[in-house]
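Listing 4. Sequential folding, example run.
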Amino acid sequence: MSETTVAGVLAELAALEDPKARAVNERHGDDHGVNLGALRALAKRLKTQQELACRLWATGDSAARLLALLICRPKAFGRDELDAMLREARTPKVHDWLVNYVVKKNPHAEELRLAWSADPDPVVASAGWALTTERVAKKPEGLDLAGLLDVIEAELKDAPDRLQWAMNHCLAQIGIENAALRARAIDIGERLEVLKDYPTPPGCTSPFAPTWITEMVRRQQS
């Protein structure tokens, strides 16, 4: 892809900039003003273009990076590339899309899960926990779930926000998926009270683990 193509895409993104969308996004820590529906429509038109995706990522622009994550080939990235990208992805939406849309589909996901979970940077560690939650839900074989609960019990309460959110999700997922550990997961959540008072819109499930676990199990059994 030529630089003019990158410039053309950046111009399209600039034309999609919406002050209201930016105001909403900035409240969540994201520094762009492009409506995500419009961004997805643009990605659908561009289709998969790995080289263009890499060039868009290199611009450092958040909207361009989100678009890059939608048009890239997830399996084309090397382990070290993904590690570097995660450490550059400091806004929540770019970080989340990178983990969910790219890393989870990459053959290096398990290796990165182990490395990131032990990383001293809490934002990097949160990505490791997100990948662990994915394994709890889809491929728990080989995971020490009781050991994960030990770590969560010891560290969840005082973890920084992003890491706390990811660990709490893992706590809930263990309780939802594993009947033998469900009572312990609920007990940990009740004692630590993490996200107990989190404002939850009507019709949405609270992220407070005991409530989350109970509701999801109820849905599975109904």
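-- end of first protein; second protein begins --
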Amino acid sequence: MERGISNLIDLWKEGYSEHIKRYQPYQAMQQIRHIASLFSPGDFFYFILNMHNLELEYVHPTVKNFMNVDPVHVTIRELLKCVEPQDLESVKRKEMVLQDFLEKFKDPYELPFYKILYMYRMKDRYGRYRTMLLQVNVLSVSDTGTIEHILSVHTDISYLGVTKSDHISFISLNGQKSYYNVNCEKGGFDEALFDIPFVGFGSDLTKREQEIIFYFSKGLGAKEIGEALNISEYTVRTHRKNILKKTKQTNMAQLVSLCVMEGLI
């Protein structure tokens, strides 16, 4: 466990810390706290990490819902201890892909307009296992083009009943090209993906179809969804069939998992 955590921290030091010349505290803390307060309801915590020295500049108090730590004095090493040990290697590969993507991206100053997502499992302070969705946003970039501060949001998505994905997604927040479900097996970002024409996932889904996906993600059946939307159960089942065909998925559980990773839920 400790060795896996040390390897992950060394990866960050080599990829980020060693390229940042001086410590620079994040200036817009109040704005971040306000933005985080607008997140959709759910059990989550977040923190701001300074990549110069891997120190936590702020940790939201809700971290205590997950871990028995002091949000004021906790370290990144302590937070990493919550990761399920069997997932540490998977997390490291995802972080290697993330780092490789950041290095290969043509304009580092566009990186704050991306949200990076992947899943991992954790064991909380009560001994319960949770499936977590990690969402990372670059807050600032140094003069040399190195990531300086990141916002890291960890949300419990266990209630969705999705299985942990071993992929990572890079979602554009300003309409630029996104990269969905990138394979992390080799620990690097395939540059060929930069040249593939961008087709936004779910761009051909109707508003009604998106509503039905949302209700399925809440665990409702076809009959309950029909009652909620004032349509017949048969109509819901027809929509579900069309949705799976459009998205090329085999079942709704798989689709919900994909929608979570791509920021549609």
